[in-house]
């Protein structure tokens, strides 16, 4: 069995010597498309054995075994010959694969992935070394495939410091917690409309592992698991992630989920469960906002995704969504309209406030988990503040949040008890508010209280970014208070 714990280190050491690789993001992208082809080759070998009429969409010379496998006889492509093949034959061929509406998903994904994938390496000898390391993974070994899944999770975590693309890769502890409390069942349709690397969908699949599954039910799970991702790199990661977790035909679409009129969605477009961490802090242009009703249009990306969820959640369905503080206390007309629609059409039963450093090193802004279902209007909402675990000052890349850090919230979930704040008199760590109280407060959902201030030393770059985020949050709160004062005085703001 390959020593997978050292696999990523070996690849990193090789790529550091290649002048074409500039930074972690490019290194990881290079690893991912090679790993995807290796995994896809193993999948094709299985399909070929199980299906009498299986035909690969890949030309024979572009299949992994033909160009990547080194049999040790000295005939494997390397150096300039390998570079020439990859750059001038492999990539153009995969980008130009004949894909139609009738092409099965498991084959069409190859062309979609390589339409925007990149080959960065310039040294063919080093490329051969990288290919050999990946080729050494034994995908016929169940234990090794399982271990590879863990290694893949480590690759995703490395993306936390891989550049400035702005994607938020949700910690596995958060996705697992949300998936558990949304209560998955085999046969339900689940969606993530900004799925990134597929983390929420993997957590959903893990929750279903304990339920009885036949070959038919596993196939049904794959067909009912749906994701959309706008950016090419995370899309490529999500496809690989699904393949590694047993989904042979991943329903992951490379598109912007916000670019369709939400009024055009029907019951056929609805889902039983929706799990999401929408991109936040982004600003959508007027043409994207135009796909939403006028009173719900907002430039803030996360707000538009929440509106999308409201239109695509099936009657009786459940949703769990990560949202920043700005949504909770936002008092501009659009945010208030969105919150009014949320509480009118859905039962917002739980809001969990997370510690600020959960998403370190991306942002220190505090985030919240909203759980709601489409079973009728909200009657009351419980708010719970999750504090830092004992012994932790803050989370970091080397000390990320773990699933057991949610244990206090798991224990509270079914009991739903009011918990006074042990440090602030008159405040609460957990409390319940009626819809009437929330409406009277101008739909302010900032009712969780803040976790104890976390002691953290940031780099100069992170300090500046944190300052800008905190200033934006403070400005929003000031605007909300001024709006209330103006309303009390009967002053119409310009």
Word description of this protein:
This protein is of the alpha/beta class. The chain is 44% helix and 12% strand. It is built from 18 helices and ten strands. It has helices at residues 7-15, 24-50, 64-67, 79-95, 105-114, 124-135, 142-158, 172-181, 199-208, 215-223, 232-244, 286-289, 301-312, 325-329, 333-345, 407-415, 435-440, 460-489; strands at residues 190-192, 225-229, 251-254, 271-276, 313-324, 347-353, 367-373, 380-385, 419-420, 428-434. It has a ten-stranded mixed beta sheet, sandwiched between helices. β2, α11 and β3 (251-254) form a beta-alpha-beta unit. α2 crosses α6 (124-135) and α13 runs parallel beside α15. The radius of gyration is 24 Å and the shape is elongated. The N and C termini lie far apart (69 Å). Residues 160-166 and 452-457 have low confidence and may be disordered.
Overall spatial form: elongated
Uncertain spans, ≥5 residues at pLDDT below 50?
Answer: 160-166, 452-457
Order of helices and strands: HHHHHHHHEHHEHEEHHEHHEEEHEEHH
- Estimate the strand proportion: 5-15%
Q: From the helix content, strand content and strand pairing, which structural class follows?
A: alpha/beta
Please tally the β strands and state the result. 10
Sheet with the most strands: spatial strand order: 3-2-1-4-5-7-6-8-10-9
Multimeric state: single chain
Mean pLDDT across residues: 85
**N-to-C span:** 69 Å
The profile of the biggest β sheet is: 10 strands, mixed
What's the helix count?
18
